[in-house]
Design a protein that fits this description.
Mean pLDDT of chain B: 89
Strand content of chain B: 15-25%
Low-confidence stretches of chain B: 1-6, 261-265
Helix content of chain A: over 70%
Shape of chain A: globular
CATH architecture of one domain in chain B: 3-Layer(aba) Sandwich
Radius of gyration of chain B: 20 Å
Bound molecules: adenosine-5'-triphosphate, magnesium ion
Low-confidence stretches of chain A: 1-20
Strand order of the largest sheet of chain B: 6-7-8-3-9-10
Order of helices and strands of chain B: HEEEHEEHEHHHHEHEHEEHHHEE
Distance between the termini of chain B: 29 Å
Number of helices of chain B: 12
Number of strands of chain B: 12
Oligomer: heterodimer
Shape of chain B: globular
Number of helices of chain A: 12
CATH architecture of one domain in chain A: Orthogonal Bundle
Largest sheet of chain A: none
Number of strands of chain A: 0
Largest sheet of chain B: 6 strands, mixed
CATH class of one domain in chain A: Mainly Alpha
CATH superfamily of one domain in chain B: P-loop containing nucleotide triphosphate hydrolases
Largest interface: A-B, 33 and 44 residues
């Protein structure tokens, strides 16, 4: 064969090695960028948390002390106790120092450290949000693929229409509807699921029955979240796959003799999933906000219920703590998704 | 065309017409094309941008979009691909005939290693091969097109345009097909690389004895490496013949324009404006009456707009569609 220039002799190996190290270096840069972005968001949340709960609603001491403090001395004492008599910059420094050492203040209602309360209430929320996100992602991605692949046909219209209708329902409304239908029982329907809470009173922690009991309690709240947020995930996947469907490499895949399903599964869906990971992670924020309502409707003792209850006092430090923790959680979940995406998509690495 | 041709031809297009359904009405992109490629033969298809070259390529493996209607017969290795069952069609795809698509960058999956992409059709069509055997074949193919075997671990974006084109060629040869269709394999490459890729294609065809249909908007490129050349204008064949004859002694005024002033190789502007030819090709939805080329033809006379000139043999193996041929 007369192959002149262009063929690759020995230096090729060196070139490949260079490409590999180059890739590693550029993934490093990608990670650095994403971490910096997340750090920026966290800093913003930290500052916002301070002002939101100190400056914006006016004087916390007055709001809290409404009708409680008889004398000016009592008010002063309260202020001194919470450092509210300090100048604002000083307060901010104290706030930073405390927050970084894990001290989120003390609940005005429970008289226990907010960090303990949050740790206590974290697991129900994680369980609820985690299960709902996982299910909504799986079902949403599946529905998105189906509707994109059948774009414009009945399957697509029904799927998109249904998910959008559910999306437009308020969580509390759908939650109450589900309680009425499946927990209380409506007409011929018997009430099969508990109306609220996370455990039955007689459930023994650590047993199989306890796990089953918890799962049973989670069915309706998770269902509420999944139904409402399904459209988020399915529409993301739908449009991502539609972007891929026009691509030339799918014609190549068909030309090779692959079946339609193989073209879809091995090429189109896989490629469409990559950018979707980061978008799906963004939706976790919405699920978390939805969980606050759902926990209240189903009286699940999670962070959402904690925050809703704190609002009525108002229990400032609890509100501030739950705000900081949930925001940080969402930011970190997004960071994680971005880092995973960077690992999965070779185009990011170069 | 005689019976012997039909049996031995690896590609035999008979009166192929392709019409796209568009919002502005039907768009006849290919109109009554006859074309044959025999084993070991290199046939060139030339014509300006938009004359229907890629559309014709699409019909070879029934890859046309749903909006296209194909009439006529497309015989690949004797099978009419437009009417055989899906199962037979899938078996024919890539194993019988393969395509080097226009634009290697977009025709490769951006997030799969090229080794996996070359291996995919081999695994599909020869499932009995062991993983190692497939691996060996992939490495051989890469070396055959002048790439290091270690390149199999690269992603498309890590390769240059010329390297990607080589990958496409290696991929097209993966299942040892009897027909390879290369749709503008060298457009968008610089002159040096263009020459390398064309040499490579030509050598592979000679060595492997496959039939090659190579498409280009550049007649000079085809003249060099083809046995026969077919010239298309506005969806129809206007002239064909032996490559050197068509290039050195073009008969149709359009071919003359294509070959007349040597189009500059690699100049992207050349594809849209063949040297010495004024005006644009017609909109296929709104073709001029009579000869589609008449409005741009320096030799046009009123009779040209009366009827579409038929393709007539003006010499042995030299059909031309022009009523003024011989006069000029
Ligand atoms: N999917 C489609 N739907 C409608 N019209 C199309 C479609 N694909 C191509 N066409 C039209 O068909 C005609 C022929 O297009 P085609 O891509 O086959 O030309 P080509 O000769 O390959 O051009 P190029 O040299 O630019 O690749 C053009 O007028 C084009 O606009
Ligand atoms: Mg084309």
């Amino acid at each position: 064969m007369t192959e002149p220039a262009g063929s690759e002799p020995a230096p090729a190996a060196a070139a490949v090695r260079a490409a590999v190290t180059g890739r590693r270096r550029s993934y490093g840069r990608y990670v650095a960028g994403k971490v910096a972005g997340a750090a920026g968001s966290l800093a913003f949340v930290l500052v916002l948390g301070f002002f939101l709960f100190r400056v914006l609603p006016g004087d916390p001491a007055r709001t809290l002390g409404r009708g409680r403090f008889k004398t000016q001395d009592q008010l002063e004492e309260f202020r001194a106790q919470y450092g509210l008599d300090q100048p604002l910059p000083q307060q901010f420094l104290t706030y930073l120092k405390n927050t970084f050492s894990g001290d989120l203040g003390e609940s005005l209602r429970y008289r226990t450290p907010v960090s303990d309360l949050i740790l206590d209430r974290l697991w129900p929320t994680l369980l609820l949000v985690g299960t709902a996100t996982l299910l909504a992602t799986l079902i949403g991605v599946y529905l998105g693929v189906i509707s994109a692949w059948n774009r414009g046909k009945a399957t697509d219209k029904i799927t998109t229409g249904t998910t959008l209708t559910l999306y437009s329902m308020p969580e509390w409304w759908l939650g109450l509807l589900l309680i009425a239908a499946f927990a209380v029982g409506m007409g011929p329907l018997p009430g099969i699921f508990p109306t609220g809470g996370l455990h039955s009173v007689d459930a023994e922690p650590g047993t199989i029955g306890y796990v089953g009991d918890t799962a049973l309690h989670l069915v309706l709240p998770v269902l509420t979240l999944v139904l409402v947020y399904l459209a988020d995930f399915s529409l993301i996947m739908r449009s991502s796959l539609l972007d891929e469907i026009g691509e030339d490499y799918l014609v190549t895949a068909r030309a090779k003799g692959l079946r339609d399903v193989e073209v879809r599964r091995r090429h189109a869906t896989r490629n469409a999933l990559l950018p979707t990971t980061t978008l799906i992670a963004l939706s976790i924020g919405f699920v978390v906000s939805g969980a606050i309502t759902v926990e209240t409707v189903f009286s699940i003792p999670g962070l959402g219920l904690l925050a809703t209850e704190a609002l009525t006092i108002p229990d400032y430090w609890v509100l501030q703590g739950t705000f900081l923790v949930t925001s940080a959680g969402v930011i970190l979940a997004n960071l994680l998704a971005n880092l995973v995406y960077g690992l999965l998509d070779p185009r990011v690495r170069s | 065309m005689n019976g012997v041709d039909a049996v031995s031809a690896v590609l035999d297009l008979r009166d192929v017409t392709v019409t796209y359904r568009t919002a502005e009405g039907p768009l006849p992109a290919v109109r009554g094309v006859d074309l044959t490629v025999r084993p070991g033969e290199v046939v060139g298809l030339a014509g300006e941008s938009g004359c229907g070259k890629s559309t014709l390529v699409g019909t070879v493996l029934r890859l046309q979009p749903a909006s296209a209607t194909v009439e006529g017969e497309v015989l690949v290795l004797g099978q009419d691909v437009q009417s055989i069952s899906w199962g037979k069609l899938r078996a024919l795809r890539w194993a019988g005939a393969s395509i080097v698509f226009q634009g290697a960058l977009h025709s490769l999956n951006p997030v799969q290693r090229i080794g996996a992409q070359i291996a995919e059709p081999i695994r599909l069509h020869e499932p009995e091969l062991s993983r190692q055997a497939v691996d060996v074949r992939v490495e051989e193919l890469l070396e055959q097109v002048g790439l290091a075997a270690s390149r199999k671990r690269s992603y498309p974006h890590q390769l240059s345009g010329g390297q990607r084109q080589r990958v496409m060629i290696a991929m097209a040869l993966a299942c040892r097909p009897q027909l390879v269709v290369a749709d503008e394999p060298t457009t968008a490459l610089d002159v040096m690389v263009q020459a390398q890729i064309l040499d490579l294609l030509k050598d592979l065809v000679r060595d492997l004895g496959v039939g090659l249909l190579i498409i280009s908007h550049d007649l000079s490129v085809l003249a060099d490496i083809c046995d026969r050349v077919v010239v298309m204008y506005a969806g129809r064949i206007v002239e064909s013949g032996r490559a050197n004859e068509v290039f050195t002694d073009p008969l149709h005024p359009y071919t003359k324009a294509l070959s007349g002033a040597f189009p500059r190789i690699g100049d992207p502007a050349a594809r849209y404006a063949p040297a010495g030819l004024a005006g644009d090709p017609p909109d296929p939805r709104d073709l001029p009456p009579g000869c589609s080329f008449a409005p741009r033809c320096p030799l046009a006379v009123p009779e040209c707009t009366v009827a579409e000139p038929p393709l007539v043999e003006v010499g042995p193996g030299r059909p031309v569609a022009c009523i003024r041929v011989g006069e000029s």
